[in-house]
Structure formats: structure tokens, C-alpha cells
Design a protein that fits this description.
465 residues, alpha/beta, nine-stranded mixed beta sheet, 19 helices, 14% strand
């Protein structure tokens, strides 16, 4: 796929809410990911300026078959980038309108009384992309290696290991080539925000997964026992699926669903690279899956991360428009209630995790409350991960049992997680914490954060530099 077409495809994926910039770029299969990422990021930064230029020059009226995302990419590179160094027929098309576009740019500068291109940007756009400094989280894929070997590998590459973090503030203070073991999740390493591992051998070989900490919570809290049958209801791009497989130790079965063929193909490649073997992919809307199908009679765990507004994603497109309308949120919430209720109808289900990357109560606490009321006493809301600092909004009784995450409070993307369990007669709702988390110190406890974890027998394959 050519650079400009690939960049336009990423912009279209962002508009649809398919994922964040990095996810879409690195799943695009474009061979030069850094080049693509830089072009997409800068096109987004200049998005409002580009829209004014396109309107003033009437480019889309003159070229009726030219999609808006592709037009933005072409005009960005023509006027603000490298001057259309590639592009084939698209280069020729854009250059036909060069004089008109340059005249419109000059007019816009005069109108706004600025002399530099950068000065056309609003203050929030002029800031460096990704100004909200979320660390680089690296989940060690225990299907291929162990945490000790991964730490040793990074140390041999010149990184300085500072041990286990004792607070979020330690994560916030990371800089240079230093890294920590996360204070909450046992197989998560934390690096400074600008660290890039997409060309690293461990990433290319599937030994590490680049996954935000909040995105690791759903599989971690579902915590299926090895040998279990699990459904990942809205699975692509597959990071959570690979995390489930690691928790299961490839023992059991994961049924993963998604409606998009391309996303499933990308997901299949990613899972194979990660060494996942215990999975079945299906191009199917989860709502059409029959809970009474004998194939799913042993499904006791479901991870449900449905489509949402994506309002919690740090790397979302900077927009001038307001938050999603009430109508849009209600439409999403209606779908989310429907799919959550459908998931609870699987007869053998014992535990379900519902999660979104949304900040809106309508998609989170309100959905959980409505579905719990619909099901009566059949399911209970579990007090998940009591040591997690950010809790659910007080929308209903026990809503604080839910988890929330945010860049400001937890140094992650914005996220919401609720854990539901089937309830037997006379049982109370216990606090729930996966066994792996119990080995981690709570917020107020501190181990020796400057020492590496105690070595254990290494059974996984090592990667040579």
C-alpha cells in the first residue's frame, strides 16, 4: 500500500473509532511504520488548517472522487511536509492545484496575521502530539518468555532497571533509558513515554506486547483458570486475546469474534506471532452467536469490550468538535446494554468483564446498572481490585466496585472496567483480586525497588541480540 493511501486509511479508521493512532498504524502492514506514523500525526495536528485550505481552494469540488482523508494527507505533505516526494497519480493530482493551494495558504496567514505555518495552529494543536505523557507500557508475553529474561534483555541493550515501582509518581518521573516493573500488574514493564520498541527484536518476535496498562486490566481481572473456555466477544485487534491466552497458558479454548475481515486477518497474524495456539477466530457479530450452541456449552468466562465513543483514548484525533452528542451516546449505550445482556445469557457463564475506553457514564456505570437490574439477582457486581485508586462514579449502589482509569490519576488511557459474577443463593459479593495481583504490594507498601526480581528457573526460549 502506498504511503498516502495508508495514511488516509489510518485517518478513516480513527474516524470510525477502530482504535488509536499507534494501533492503526502498526496494524496497517505498511513497511515503514515510523514514516507513516509521522505523516498521520502531523496531518492530524494540521487538520483544522487543512480543512480551511481545502474549502478555500475548492479542491474537493474540483476533484469529486478525492476522499477527504486522502486530500488532507496530500495537502499536508505538499504545503507543510516534504513536498510530495512520493505518491504517483496522487502527486500529479495535488500538484495540479498547487498554485491555488499556496495562494489560499498565503491568504490564511494574512487573515490570521502570522508569518509561520506553525502559528496557524491553535495552542493545543501547536503543542507536541501526545502532550499527555502516558508512559510506554510493555507487557511481557509469558507464552514466549518470562519477566526476568525480558528485564535482562533490556539491560543488555543499555536500559537501567530501577526495580518495582512503589507509586504512580515513580512512573511519572521516568526518563532517559530507565524502566520499572509496574506496581499493579506483575508482567508489565514501564518505560518513559517517548520510548519506541516497534523495531525492537522482542516486539518483532512476539516476546513483548505494546499495550496500555488500562487495556491489560480486563484480561487480568477476568483471570480465567487454565483449561477454561473463554469468549472474547469483540476481539480485534487482539491484544486482550493474547493476554487471555497467556493467562490460560495456552490451555483451554478462546472463541474470538469480530465482524471485520481485515481486522481479523491482522489479529490472526498478531496471535500467531505471539505464540497463541488455543483460539478460534470467527467473522461474526457476537449478537448473532447462539448461547445455546453446544460449542459454547463450556464457556465460563467472557471478556466484553464493545464498540464505544473512544473518548478515553489519549492518542485520539485532536478535534474542534464537542463531545459526542446525547443521541450518539444513547445509541452506543443501547448497543452496549444489548450486547452485555446477550453475553450474560450463556448458560455456563461464571464471570464476565465489561470494559470500554470511554469516559462517559452513559456507556459505563449506566450500562452496568441497567443490565444488572434486568437480570435481577442472577449476577452480582464484584468489588474488583480494591487497591486500584480510581473507582466508578457514584451512579448507583456499589458502583464504586467498578474501576476507572485516566491519564491524570493512573497514567493510562481513560478506561472503565466492571466485573460481574453469577450469583448463587445466599452468597455475598466478595472483593475480587486475581492471585497474581496478590503478590504485588499495595500502594502503601514498598519492596526493594532498586533490585531485580529474584531469578526463577527459565523454561522459556531466550532471544539473542
Amino acid at each position: 500500500m502506498a504511503l498516502y493511501s495508508a495514511a488516509a486509511a489510518v485517518l478513516e479508521g480513527l474516524e470510525r473509532g477502530d482504535g488509536g493512532i499507534k494501533t492503526l498504524v502498526y496494524n496497517s502492514r505498511f513497511p515503514h511504520v515510523r514514516q507513516l506514523y509521522a505523516l498521520v500525526s502531523e496531518t492530524l495536528r494540521y487538520s483544522s488548517v487543512l480543512e480551511k485550505l481545502l474549502a478555500g481552494a475548492a479542491l474537493l469540488r474540483a476533484e469529486k472522487k478525492l476522499p477527504l482523508p486522502l486530500a488532507k494527507v496530500l495537502v499536508y505533505d505538499l504545503l507543510f511536509g516534504k513536498g510530495l516526494k512520493c505518491g504517483g497519480r496522487w502527486k500529479a493530482l495535488a500538484r495540479r492545484h498547487r498554485a491555488r493551494l499556496e495562494a489560499e495558504l498565503a491568504r490564511l496567514k494574512v487573515q490570521q496575521k502570522v508569518s509561520r505555518n506553525e502559528d496557524l495552529l491553535a495552542p493545543v494543536q501547536a503543542a507536541r502530539p501526545g502532550a499527555c505523557q502516558v508512559p510506554r507500557y510493555v507487557r511481557v508475553n509469558t507464552l514466549k518468555t518470562c519477566i526476568d529474561d525480558a528485564i535482562d534483555f533490556f539491560k543488555r541493550q543499555g536500559y537501567s532497571y530501577l526495580g518495582k515501582a512503589a507509586s504512580v509518581e515513580e512512573l511519572r518521573a521516568l526518563s532517559g533509558k530507565k524502566f520499572l516493573l509496574d506496581l499493579h500488574l506483575p508482567e508489565l514493564l514501564v518505560f518513559p513515554p517517548e520510548t519506541d520498541f516497534h523495531d525492537n527484536l522482542l516486539y518483532a518476535s512476539g516476546h513483548i506486547i505494546l499495550q496500555d496498562k488500562a487495556s491489560c486490566l480486563p484480561a487480568f481481572l477476568l483471570s480465567p483458570a487454565a483449561g477454561s473456555h473463554v469468549i472474547d466477544a469483540c476481539a480485534a485487534p487482539g491484544n486482550k486475546t493474547s493476554h487471555l491466552a497467556a493467562i490460560l497458558k495456552n490451555k483451554g479454548q478462546i472463541f474470538a469474534f469480530d465482524v471485520d475481515t481485515k481486522r481479523l486477518a491482522t489479529m490472526n497474524t498478531m496471535l500467531m506471532r505471539a505464540g497463541v495456539t488455543s483460539f478460534q477466530l470467527a467473522q461474526q457479530d457476537f449478537l448473532t452467536v447462539d448461547p445455546r450452541d453446544p460449542k459454547y456449552s463450556k464457556v465460563t468466562y467472557i471478556l466484553l469490550d464493545p464498540s464505544c465513543s473512544g473518548s478515553g483514548m489519549v492518542n485520539r484525533v485532536p478535534r474542534e468538535e464537542a463531545a459526542p452528542s446525547a443521541e450518539r451516546l444513547q445509541a452506543l449505550a443501547g448497543f452496549q446494554r444489548k450486547v452485555l445482556s446477550h453475553a450474560l445469557s450463556f448458560p455456563a457463564l461464571q464471570r464476565l468483564v465489561y470494559s470500554t475506553c470511554s469516559l462517559h457514564r452513559e456507556e459505563n456505570e449506566d450500562v452496568v446498572q441497567a443490565v444488572l437490574q434486568e437480570w435481577g439477582s442472577a449476577f452480582r457486581l464484584v468489588n474488583a481490585f480494591p487497591s486500584w485508586p480510581c473507582r466508578g462514579l457514584a451512579a448507583f449502589s456499589r458502583a464504586e466496585s467498578c474501576l476507572r482509569a485516566s491519564p491524570a490519576e493512573t497514567l493510562t488511557h481513560g478506561f472503565f472496567v466492571a466485573v460481574l459474577e453469577r450469583q448463587g443463593e445466599g452468597t455475598a459479593a466478595p472483593s475480587y483480586l486475581p492471585a497474581a495481583a496478590e503478590e504485588n504490594p499495595q500502594h502503601g507498601e514498598r519492596t526493594e525497588p532498586r533490585a531485580a526480581p529474584k531469578k526463577r528457573k527459565r523454561k522459556k526460549q531466550r532471544v539473542k541480540e
